[in-house]
Amino acid sequence: MPNELRIGMVGYGFMGRAHSNAYHRVNQFFDTAYQPVLKAIAARDQEKTKKFADRWGWERVERNWHKLVEAADIDAIDICSPNNTHHEIALAAAAAGKMVLCEKPLAMDLAQAREMTRAVEKTGKPNMVWFNYRRVPAISLAKQMIDEGRLGKVFHYRATYLQDWTISPKVPVGGAATWRLEKDVAGAGVSGDLSTHNIDTALWLNGPVRRVCGMTEIFIKDRKRPDGSPARVEIEDVCTFLARFANGSNGTFEATRYARGRKNKNSFEVNGEKGSIYFDLEDMHQLQYFNHEDPTHLQGWRTILVTGAEHPYMGNWWVPGCVIGYEHTFVNALADFLRGLEKGERVRPDFRDALETQAVAEAVLESARAEKWMSPQADLS
Ligand SMILES: NC(=O)c1ccc[n+]([C@@H]2O[C@H](COP(=O)([O-])OP(=O)(O)OC[C@H]3O[C@@H](n4cnc5c(N)ncnc54)[C@H](O)[C@@H]3O)[C@@H](O)[C@H]2O)c1
To answer: 302-313 burial string, b = 16+ CB within 10 Å, else e?
Structure first.
């Protein structure tokens, strides 16, 4: 009989669906000693929350997230609501001695992220931040190849996160999904939303960042709210930055919602002395690899189809050649979290890792404001 992990989830939007799906699927595909129980959910609109709970099999609906935090029959709080809610919910959940799983970006700013990290670490309970792209099998394979020394000394790390959904001036500030354009709700623009994914992956693959130099722009400065009233845009539409990594490599990062034709192009290329790798989320089942140690007459970029049982996570899914998708990355992440519970091991990325990401993102924005290089400050004090 598996141990129960009773979940209380906040929010039923995009991530509410992705996480609910993961809670249902994980024990069907992974052998873990823990089984999530979809205990209770809270969000702002009671009627819609009830409909969501019925569709996804949540046992009950609570009036607000405070009720989840207070409930004796809930072990872990899962925060799937907009960024401005993460801090307050995480602090309350930690104070109540719950495990906390939080969506990214961890916080509105670095000061909040520090406080949240201190709070969850004080409980001694496991915590996690859903930087799910680490659990794309091809990205996990990239990590494995780097750790195996296949790239050798790294010279360049090049990342992009490109979308095109805010080019129209008609996209409002505020509302479902478009809360991302509202500073008081999102905290930051693409640096918090998109760059943080790139930064988390980069820190994982290529180690700490020592210095950054950023540039941002707001292309459309005046928009409207959903009710038609005028709204000044205060979050950046594009964020580009240079980075110096501790391992001596140079990095370039570009995130934008103004790259016409790009929908979710989260990509990176790493160039090392012995080889290079390239990944693009829009072809997420593939990893491109150039091996300089191949015989010279056979050298060239090869495409690794990351669907074999020998590849990370894929032994738990289908037969070789059958791809998995976006939603599976959340199942893989959850499987790791449950295994960490079972073994009493730290599962990453956790709040401490997300704090480091937040520190880089904040240093980038400060650097862009001041027009000079900055060093991320990920310390807890
Ligand atoms: N890991 C990823 O790749 C990924 C992808 C998308 C979003 N996110 C993150 O997930 C979080 C949620 O984003 P989303 O796209 O699911 O948003 P969404 O707009 O689709 O859904 C937000 C949900 O939060 C609820 N909500 C809003 N304010 C609330 C409050 N004060 N109290 C309780 N509930 C509240 C809303 O009712 C809604 O159910 C954000 O932090 C976002 O950055 C992460």
So the answer is: eebebbeeebbb
The total domain count for the chain is 2
Q: What is the pTM of this model?
A: 0.98
219 pairs with which residues across the strands?
none
If one counts every other C-beta atom within 10 angstroms of the C-beta of residue 96, the result is 17
* Domain, as residue range, for 110: 3-132
Of 80, 102, 132, the residue that ends a domain is 132
Measured from the CA of 83, which atom of ligand 1 is nearest?
Answer: 41
CATH of the domain at 80: 3.40.50.720
C-alpha–C-alpha distance, residues 363 and 134, integer Å: 23
* Closest C-alpha to 304, from 327, 274, 283: 283
Cα separation of 117 and 350, whole Å?
9
The pLDDT tens digits for 126-165 are 999 999 999 999 999 999 999 999 999 999 999 999 999 9
C-beta of 81 in contact with ligand 1 (< 6 A): yes
Distance 65 CA to ligand 1 centre (A): 13
DSSP 8-state symbol, 274:
S
Residue 381 lies in a domain: no
